[in-house]
């Protein structure tokens, strides 16, 4: 069994997920990733059980890997037209 | 650059006053270390970084307010700690992310963990913006 993740590890995972979210070209996917990580980390904030903590942490790490791969692939096929939400009001 | 000369000017009076305190001997050190908290000289000597621009501090305050959903008239100054304003560590990470996006900088992991007050964040931002433009 993996040791329970430390507070620093959890915060680093949070930061990495937010950074990956920023790399997405699509507005919707970017906002979803940010929203999902915020919701998931806040829901799991109250966990104290060691096995639940390590399960949630490894789940988060797996999601981070998925998100990194997806961000790379999406950037190869980025649409030319940006979403209306990305265009700042001039 | 004008900003770097400004920095050096700010540092020199602090260092000369420090040397003078050392030369004067033990009796002066005792008088400074007395719990007379009104002595600004003692608190100034502990500060390593110079003060950030007020516009930067204002921008940081507005981002903090938006993130923590604080009302507009709540007191958010340079000295307010994030934990005192009701932010937990996840909120602090989000605030640092927001600051990175706003100022176009990239904060390191270790530096981000040492940010405790609004003033810390503003000083770090100033340093990174200077490094980026230099």
Automatic annotation (TrEMBL), chain A:
A Pfam family of this chain: Complex1_LYR
Organism: Hibiscus syriacus (Rose of Sharon)
Lineage: Eukaryota, Viridiplantae, Streptophyta, Embryophyta, Tracheophyta
Domain of life: Eukaryota
Domain Complex 1 LYR protein residues, every copy: 10-66
Protein name per UniProt: Synaptosomal associated protein
GO biological process: iron-sulfur cluster assembly
């Amino acid at each position: 069994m993996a040791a329970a993740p430390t507070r620093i590890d959890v915060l680093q995972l949070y930061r990495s997920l937010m950074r990956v979210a920023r790399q997405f070209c699509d507005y919707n996917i970017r906002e979803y990733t940010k929203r999902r990580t915020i919701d998931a980390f806040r829901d799991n904030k109250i966990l104290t059980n060691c096995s639940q903590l390590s399960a949630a942490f490894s789940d988060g790490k797996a999601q981070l890997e998925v998100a990194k791969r997806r961000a790379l692939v999406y950037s190869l096929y980025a649409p030319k037209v940006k979403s209306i939400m990305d265009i700042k009001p001039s | 650059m004008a900003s770097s000369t400004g920095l050096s000017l700010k540092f020199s009076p602090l260092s000369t006053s420090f040397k003078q305190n050392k030369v004067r001997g033990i009796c002066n050190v005792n008088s400074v270390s007395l719990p007379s908290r009104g002595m600004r000289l003692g608190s100034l000597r502990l500060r390593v970084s110079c003060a950030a621009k007020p516009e930067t501090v204002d921008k940081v305050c507005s981002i903090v307010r938006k993130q923590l959903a604080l009302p507009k008239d709540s007191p958010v100054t340079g000295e307010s700690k994030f934990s005192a304003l009701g932010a937990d560590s996840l909120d602090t990470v989000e605030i640092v992310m927001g600051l990175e996006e706003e100022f176009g900088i990239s904060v390191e992991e270790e530096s981000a963990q040492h940010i405790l007050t609004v003033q810390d964040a503003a000083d770090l931002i100033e340093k990174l913006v200077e490094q980026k433009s230099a």
